[in-house]
Amino acid sequence: MFTNAIVRRPCRAIVHGITSSPELGKPDIELALKQHDDYIAALKQCGVKVTVLEPDEAYPDSCFVEDTAVLTRKCAIITNPCADSRKGEPLEMLPAIRRFYEEETIEYIKAPGTLEGGDVMMAGDHFYIGQSNRTNAEGIRQFISILNKFGMTGSAVPLSTVLHLKTGVSYIENNTVLVSGEFIDDTRFASFKRITVAPDEAYASNCVWINGTVIVPAGYPNVLNAVKTTGYKTIVVDTSEYRKVDGGLSCLSLRF
Ligand code: GLY
């Protein structure tokens, strides 16, 4: 169960966010704000208390709070993003995290380690960590060492094409994952019940499970149907403006 979520309102500088899909155009900030309102409403509908942080114009990608920390039942792990334009974001998130975690349960990924929360997928007390262009082997080593200190475990998943691990695979509880692309045949996920996502809906392999409900991005009918058929309640939220800067549903919140 999750009881809390933290989000940060998108800033106007989001038009300068990092993107691998410039052909999608720049985000429309007014529409992004409306979609953020809907996202917050969906989180609340799932029963979590939402802490809403002010926009931070210094960091174009700062609404993607998931990359700044990993919040577990036992500790908070403050990340060290690889992208230069995002390096300062965890420090801006720290005051909000200190409202929920005692200082002795807050840990830090330190250089030369890099790690972004989008690369971390929690499945109970085990964490899968994508080794990506953003998260390096040293970051993963530090992360697993912190997990072990608090009685949890982790394992690395080398990535070949996607930005972050959760760009292509999401754990939606009940031993179930959504998998696309390079993860479909990945034996690391073979013991899970797998919902396979076709290439034309790959963006929707990033869904969010909260307290029995799965939030699914708008515009991906096959994924929505598969998640419903598997037995979940669903809420659909449009994230078209965030997709333009490589953001998915999970990127927009910290859930704990
Ligand atoms: N635009 C999100 C990221 O690249 O981190």
What does this structure look like?
This protein is α/β, with parallel strands linked by helices and 256 residues long. The protein has a single domain, classed as L-arginine/glycine Amidinotransferase, Chain A (5-stranded Propeller). The protein is 22% helix and 25% strand. Glycine (GLY) binds next to loops.
Can you describe this structure in just a few lines?
By secondary structure, the chain is α/β, with parallel strands linked by helices. The protein is built from six helices and 15 strands.
Search tags:
single chain; 256 residues; alpha/beta; L-arginine/glycine Amidinotransferase, Chain A; three-stranded mixed sheet; 15 strands; 25% strand; binds glycine
Q: Helix fraction?
A: 10-25%
Please, how many helices? 6
Task: List the ligand species.
Answer: glycine
Under CATH, the topology is which? L-arginine/glycine Amidinotransferase, Chain A
Q: Tell me the structural class.
A: alpha/beta
Map the helices and strands.
Elements: E1 4-8, H1 29-45, E2 49-53, E3 69-71, E4 76-78, H2 89-98, E5 106-108, E6 120-123, E7 126-131, H3 137-149, E8 153-158, H4 165-168, E9 169-171, E10 176-180, E11 193-197, E12 208-210, E13 213-217, H5 221-229, E14 233-237, H6 240-243, E15 254-255
Parallel strand pairs: 1-2, 4-5, 7-8, 10-11, 13-14
Antiparallel strand pairs: 1-15, 3-4, 6-7, 9-10, 12-13
Bound molecules: glycine.
